[in-house]
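Hi everyone, sorry if this is the wrong subforum. Our group has a chain we'd like a structural model of before ordering constructs, and none of us has done structure prediction before. Sequence below.
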Amino acid sequence: MEQYDIIIIGAGPGGLTAGIYAGRQGTKNLIIDRDLAGGLGREVPAMENYPGFDNISGLELIEKTKAQAIKNCDLKEMEEVTEIIKTDDEYRFTVKTNKDEYKAKSIILATGSSHSPLNVKGEEEFKGKGVSYCATCDGFFFAGRDIVMVGGGNSALQEALYLKNLGANVTIIHRRDEFRAQKHLQEMIKQAEINTLLNKTVEEIKGNMLVESVVLKDTKTGELTEVPTNGVFVSIGYIPHTELAKQLEVELDESGHIITDKNQKTNVEFVYAVGDVCVGLKQWVVACGEGAVAATSAFTDLQN
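Answer:
Right subforum, don't worry. Here is the predicted structure as tokens:
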């Protein structure tokens, strides 16, 4: 069973950055991800707020970060961690995956999150048949077609702009009377002349073999209307992946996110957490900063 000083679970921006910092400190480290490196970061069509780049796609930035990480630590993709067991020896944790087992002195949880569903009638039925959670994955198929983007945050507006640029006829649906996204994104939506329907929620997704319409409810009047559409893109938030944290009895807040201190330490000794799985701002640059802090904290604690 191979032994490591630090095992990082999750190869998103935070996990990869933790691997870079951990390796440069001279420790033996492993990053494990159940998917390809990058997580939801791979889906970001364009970022204009990451330092050093006027505009860069999530996929391009992930590939650059991954190339740095593998110079400093081991990386295993498409390998899912199924269990973490605390032990009493120097290597305090046994990490079991669907392929192997490893020992670690400390753990960094960078397990990320997944898209929140609408939880409405027709959503499950039409997944992959017009319902999508990833504009960069599926947007190409909707060029020249009518689609709705559900959400009002940065991700929703960024993806709406991306879909518009692909040639889709986009309408944004948001449950409140104003967007939560950054002002410059809101201005870009206006400049792109993207249609918006505010104070509306999706109550049902309808169709035959494929999506054909959505039923909307006015949040002020309760009135129901049916809007024709070929596709429904959903960007309404994220669900943190905390299954492994719960195994380790890591403390969570009321929304289910991991609670950490300023050094990214959890309530469990030698367990740290970074990125979208944690309480705090869900931004790429924040996850990277947390990854650097967690790796440094883990290194310091291993020396004591």
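For your construct planning: The chain is about 25% helix and 30% strand. The chain has two domains: 2-114+238-303, 117-234.
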